[in-house]
């Protein structure tokens, strides 16, 4: 196999960004020392970092997050849950040589590199406004923290040496020679960097922007993400416990108390293409169809359509079949829950044969104005409903006010009740009724109700797998799901809670980079 360099030692490749925050073309070489001279240069460099998010959200995070969970699978592997969940040698994202892993790692560090260029070089540039200079730095640090948050949830785990390890810490521009001397940092060190970046972002980002800059991250986005980071650190594998749940509560209360944010009136409205960056949104990855080659459009119409459905659902250029909902996911919705109709379908009518095809697919990201892989949907990474439910969970885990926790869950259920559902299914009389304290005998019962509410409210938004890992529920839930599919002897091991470091990375620095437990150390 041809040896590849570590991604973070490679030169940046050129990429498109935008004058309305999407389509502006940066100079041909963003690494050029002669480029970083003005405020405008740095603005383009920041937008380039935003633009690179699309390479990750188009496929990689869905593959290694949502599809990893009991929510979805690959529809063309139906009938073999070992394949569906990536366990065996033929399709497994678990194997170090799998291309999904390498692509995720490479694209993540490309984005981090772009952020590091901004952070490292902006100090040498004279700005008319120091606040704007700090804002650009804060945006780059938020994006770097976001990517490291994903990297450490995907690859962070116990190494073959028994230590709890995270990704490789690259917090500045480095030379190729330096890259070959680098190994993984402790998971705690990586989270320390994430927290430091997010605190800076929280203190230096504006509350909002003018119309030409809608989509850039705000103070509220940084506050929310920091809360999620604390929530994750409280659980597996760092297991920081109550202290960090309480830190998360403080962050969530700050977001919830901000009058700029409110739930969109119906669940359906939240995902309408015309309703980008709503009052519920804390951060969205921006997409725009119609640019040259479809470079900035979103691909989920095609990717998530049923495999071989051709034009029966959407124009499926790449045959679809990715991120197909499981039967267990379909069953998770209460009868008549309108969120199911907005989010997924249980099958489709084949006009050629007249037969009903029992093949489930995600429709939450459907762009009715487009039918191919160049669509206008944004990816909502952070939104208020997510924060409400995390806040409720943190209150219960710290033996806080359970009634307040239930109230915030009920706000989510009330909004769902106000949503138009499947016209062929009459709503149940007690559809999504409000919970009361008397419904739960124990705190664990309430936590399971919150978990279920998160599953259906945030379905196909790439939260489920990370929720299961941090709460210590992944093994039990995934084993049960495989048994539900008819594989009663299936067991889920601890090693499956973290992905292996990609083989290309291990080969680049043999002996320097420690592999995760359960995989071969080079």
UniProtKB/TrEMBL annotation:
Residues 20-231 form the SusD-like N-terminal domain. Residues 350-519 form the RagB/SusD domain. Residues 1-18 form the signal peptide. Keywords: Cell outer membrane, Membrane, Signal. Gene3D superfamilies: 1.25.40.390. The keyword 4Fe-4S does not apply. It is found in: Cell outer membrane. InterPro entries: SusD-like_N, SusD_RagB_dom, TPR-like_helical_dom_sf. Its main location: membrane. Pfam families: SusD-like_3, SusD_RagB. Belongs to the SusD family. This is RagB/SusD family nutrient uptake outer membrane protein.
């Amino acid at each position: 196999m041809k040896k590849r360099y570590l991604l973070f030692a490679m030169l940046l490749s050129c990429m498109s960004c935008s004058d309305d925050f999407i389509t502006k073309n940066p100079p041909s070489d963003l690494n050029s020392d002669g480029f970083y001279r003005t405020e405008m240069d740095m603005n383009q460099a920041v937008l380039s970092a935003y633009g690179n998010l699309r390479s990750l959200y188009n496929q990689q995070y869905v593959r290694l997050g949502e599809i990893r969970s009991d929510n979805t699978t690959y529809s063309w592997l139906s009938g073999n849950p070992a394949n569906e969940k990536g366990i065996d040698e033929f399709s497994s994202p678990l194997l170090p040589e799998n291309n999904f892993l390498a692509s995720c790692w490479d694209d993540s560090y490309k984005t981090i590199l772009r952020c590091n260029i901004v952070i490292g070089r902006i100090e040498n540039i004279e700005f008319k406004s120091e606040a704007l200079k700090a804002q650009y730095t804060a945006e780059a640090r938020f994006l770097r923290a976001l990517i490291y948050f994903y990297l450490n949830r995907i690859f962070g785990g116990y190494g073959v040496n028994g230590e709890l390890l995270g990704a490789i810490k690259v917090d500045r521009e480095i030379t190729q020679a330096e890259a070959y001397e680098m190994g993984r940092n402790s998971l705690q060190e990586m989270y320390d960097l994430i927290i430091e970046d997010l605190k800076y972002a929280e203190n230096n980002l504006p509350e909002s922007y003018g119309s030409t800059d809608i989509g850039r991250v705000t103070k509220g986005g940084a506050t929310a993400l920091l809360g999620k980071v604390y929530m994750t650190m409280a659980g597996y594998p760092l297991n920081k416990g109550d202290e960090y749940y309480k830190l998360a509560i403080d962050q969530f209360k700050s977001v919830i108390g901000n009058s700029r944010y409110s739930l969109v009136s119906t669940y359906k409205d939240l995902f309408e293409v015309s309703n980008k960056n709503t009052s519920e949104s804390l951060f969205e990855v921006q997409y725009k169809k119609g640019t040259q080659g479809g470079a900035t459009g979103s691909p989920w119409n095609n990717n998530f359509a049923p495999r071989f459905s051709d034009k029966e659902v959407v124009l499926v250029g790449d045959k679809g079949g990715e991120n197909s909902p499981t039967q267990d996911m379909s069953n998770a919705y209460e009868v008549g829950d309108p969120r199911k109709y907005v989010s997924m379908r249980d099958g489709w009518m084949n006009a050629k044969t007249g037969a009903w095809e029992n093949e489930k697919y995600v429709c939450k990201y459907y762009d009715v104005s487009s039918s191919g892989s160049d669509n206008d949907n944004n990816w909502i990474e952070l939104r208020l409903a997510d924060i409400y439910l995390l806040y409720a969970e943190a209150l219960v885990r710290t033996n806080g006010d359970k009634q307040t926790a239930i109230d915030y869950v009920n706000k989510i259920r009330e909004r769902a009740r106000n949503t138009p559902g499947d016209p062929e299914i009459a709503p149940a009389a007690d559809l999504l009724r409000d919970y009361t304290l008397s419904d739960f005998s124990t705190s664990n019962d309430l936590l399971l109700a919150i978990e279920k509410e998160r599953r259906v409210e945030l379905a196909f938004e790439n939260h489920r797998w990370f929720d299961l890992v941090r709460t210590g529920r992944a093994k039990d839930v995934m084993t049960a799901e495989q048994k539900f599919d008819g594989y009663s002897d299936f067991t889920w091991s601890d090693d499956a809670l973290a992905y292996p470091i990609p083989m290309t990375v291990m080969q680049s620095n043999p002996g320097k980079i420690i592999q995760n437990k359960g995989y071969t150390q080079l």
